[in-house]
């Protein structure tokens, strides 16, 4: 019995097209064929459970092997097999709605997944690496005979009698010249490790040596010998398929080490498990995150029924959760379609929301359970939580209860607690509560000291996300503004009443202003004489909060190029009530006046960390002369 026919697809020859367009992803042929073998094995199991198959199930291990001389790769399973009729039905009639549509679509396809999934071409991905494909199969059905199908990559195929004696299927690939790299142990092992490591049916690939007992020697000591044993490459029940109740911390940590051998232990983890309204399981780990965003990305692996699909989960996981590590497995994520489709897919949106909620709940639970421990972890999770607060409204709603603000004394507060703490002392005359913050505790020390002297509290906002988080806080907290502690003299940071009067006359003020302008001699600084406490510094150099933020944003590419192009502009506040100003006014020599003014100005720059280079050298020299 032999039969010839034509694969029912009306385009002349789709295989050259497949080969050409799917070039970059050739290795996925193995994923497709191994998962077909696994599907066939699971189907026979299921049929047995349903009582529709009463034969022995036997060993269902799927075997992948290769022959360098014959140039073949073979994938064998003991699954349900196919009859000749079924081959014609499932293999020959390529499952897509029309050749025309296919040809239309492949033109825009970016990767193999897109075409393979959409058009049910999993099996045909074999032709990316094979010049001829052979199926040798025996169906589980009573009285079935073995069937062999061969196809050389054209639309012609041949069906004849096969010689498979036991239930199941061999897929034999005759590897083409361009793909001989796949006839290599390490290459194949690598691909299997990537895609098949957690498949639910054991996958055997070659052998490995193992030490086994070999009787005893003359002294009665055990003897050992090395034997070749089957190399099963996968774990069939990875932890995400198990119930959280059956798992211990060690299990989660061991799995993490298996996924990321080089990483430090994670901080904590979340076991995802939902089956309605979509099906999703997984384990997400919180890694120790430092400041490096990019470095941490692409650490979540996406699976579909334990088949690895991708570690680019960009559209499935909310942006801020991309810092997490771990696995997500969902048969409901449409894996094989284009990204734009993913974004508009309803399930994806729901999955997104679900994960966000789970993560927020976990953090809330940790915060409630042991606040001390949570605070200790804040350094590592703070960046991530703030990122979530800013980027996901849903997360922000819950997150405000477990976000922490840290002050310069190392104490932690939730935003609500913090407001309670500073409200009384730090409310200005416009009824705004002013939070002060430092971005560099060492550099801004002089300003922090001044603020502390007034019993003001100063927050530490030194992570890369903080400039955004500050704006978020101002938006969320009513009647609250944040000011960097060095953005003005302390009296002006929180103006409660009209403060000290400037004891100088208008004429004296003008005179002082001119002396300083001359001494400074730069447009970058605008001088103002103000009435401050005589205890404060004679001169303070500050940069306006608003201007600074605009500049920072322009630098980060916020599109405000107008501000980015502006030169730095500092305010120089001369304390009209300071004894030094009085001294300057009383000094006779104009040269001496200017020298004093310059010295006071340089001291202010020094406190801000702005005095560098030649100016610093000149300052030191002048100071030595003066003492
Ligand atoms: P899909 O797996 O998405 O159905 P494929 O192109 O990978 O699409 O396979 C087409 C069909 O061929 C499968 O649905 C199955 O019926 C049949 N098939 C493929 N490989 C095997 C196998 N190893 N054993 C039994 N049937 C198979
Ligand atoms: Mg398939």
Automatic annotation (TrEMBL):
The keyword Disulfide bond does not apply. InterPro entries: HATPase_C_sf, Heat_shock_protein_90_CS, HSP90_C, Hsp90_fam, Hsp90_N, Ribosomal_Su5_D2-typ_SF. Keywords: ATP-binding, Chaperone, Cytoplasm, Nucleotide-binding, Stress response. The keyword Nucleotide-binding applies. ATP binds at residues 32, 36, 77, 82, 97-98, 169, 339. GO terms for molecular function: ATP binding; ATP hydrolysis activity; ATP-dependent protein folding chaperone; unfolded protein binding. It holds the Pfam family HSP90. NCBIfam families: PRK05218.1. Belongs to the heat shock protein 90 family. This is Chaperone protein HtpG. It comes from Mongoliitalea lutea. The gene is htpG.
């Amino acid at each position: 019995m032999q039969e010839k026919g034509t694969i029912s697809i009306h385009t002349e020859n789709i295989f050259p097209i497949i080969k050409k367009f799917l070039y970059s992803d050739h290795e996925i042929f193995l994923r497709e064929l191994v998962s077909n073998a696994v599907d066939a094995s699971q189907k026979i199991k299921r049929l047995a459970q349903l009582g529709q198959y009463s034969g022995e199930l036997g060993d269902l291990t799927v075997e992948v092997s290769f022959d360098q001389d014959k140039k073949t790769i073979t994938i064998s399973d003991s699954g349900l097999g196919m009859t000749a009729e079924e081959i014609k039905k499932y293999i020959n009639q390529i499952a897509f709605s029309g050749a025309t549509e296919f040809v239309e679509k492949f033109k825009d396809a970016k990767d193999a997944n897109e075409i393979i999934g959409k058009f049910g071409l999993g099996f045909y991905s074999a032709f990316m690496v094979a010049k001829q494909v052979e199926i040798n199969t025996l169906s589980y059905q009573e009285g079935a005979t073995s069937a062999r199908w061969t196809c050389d990559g054209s639309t012609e195929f041949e069906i004849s009698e096969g010689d498979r004696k036991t239930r199941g299927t061999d897929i034999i690939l005759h590897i083409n010249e361009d793909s001989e790299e796949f006839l290599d142990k390490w290459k194949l092992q690598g691909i299997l490790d990537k895609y098949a490591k957690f498949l639910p049916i054991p996958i055997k690939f070659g052998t490995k040596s193992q030490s086994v007992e070999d009787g005893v020697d003359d002294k009665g000591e055990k003897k050992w010998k090395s034997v070749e044993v089957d190399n099963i490459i996968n774990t069939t029940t990875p932890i995400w398929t198990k119930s959280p109740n059956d798992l211990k911390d060690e299990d989660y940590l061991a799995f993490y080490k298996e996924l990321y051998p080089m990483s430090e232990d994670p901080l904590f983890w979340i076991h995802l498990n939902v089956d309605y309204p979509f099906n999703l399981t997984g384990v997400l780990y919180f890694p120790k995150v430092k400041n490096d965003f990019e470095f941490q990305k692409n650490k979540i692996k996406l699976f579909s029924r334990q088949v690895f699909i991708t570690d680019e989960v960009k559209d499935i996981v909310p942006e801020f959760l991309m810092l997490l590590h771990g696995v997500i497995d969902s048969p409901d994520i449409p894996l094989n379609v284009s990204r734009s489709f993913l974004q508009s897919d309803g399930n994806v949106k729901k999955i997104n929301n679900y994960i966000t909620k789970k993560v927020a709940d976990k953090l809330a639970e940790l915060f409630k359970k042991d606040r001390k421990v949570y605070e200790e972890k804040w350094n590592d999770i703070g960046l991530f939580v703030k990122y979530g607060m800013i980027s996901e409204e849903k997360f922000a709603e819950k997150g405000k209860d477990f976000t922490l603000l840290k002050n310069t004394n190392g104490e932690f507060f939730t935003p609500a607690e913090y407001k309670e703490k500073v409200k009384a002392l730090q409310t200005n005359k416009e009824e705004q509560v002013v939070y002060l913050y430092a971005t560099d505790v060492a550099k801004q020390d002089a300003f922090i000291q001044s603020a502390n002297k007034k019993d003001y509290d100063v927050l530490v906002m030194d992570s890369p996300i903080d400039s955004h988080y500050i704006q978020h806080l101002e938006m969320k907290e009513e009647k609250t503004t944040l000011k960097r502690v060095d953005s003005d003299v302390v009296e002006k940071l929180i103006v409660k009443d009209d403060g000290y009067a400037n004891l100088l006359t208008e004429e004296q003020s003008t005179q002082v202003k001119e002396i300083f302008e001359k001494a400074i001699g730069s447009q970058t600084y605008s001088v103002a004489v103000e009435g401050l406490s005589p205890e404060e510094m004679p001169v303070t150099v500050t940069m306006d909060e608003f201007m600074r933020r605009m500049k920072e944003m322009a630098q980060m590419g916020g599109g405000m190029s107008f501000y980015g192009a502006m030169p730095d502009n500092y305010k120089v506040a001369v304390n009209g009530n300071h004894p030094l100003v009085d001294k300057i006014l009383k000094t006779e020599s104009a040269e001496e006046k200017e020298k004093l003014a310059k010295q006071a100005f340089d001291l202010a720059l020094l406190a801000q960390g702005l005095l560098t280079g030649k100016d610093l050298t000149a300052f030191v020299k002048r100071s030595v002369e003066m003492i």
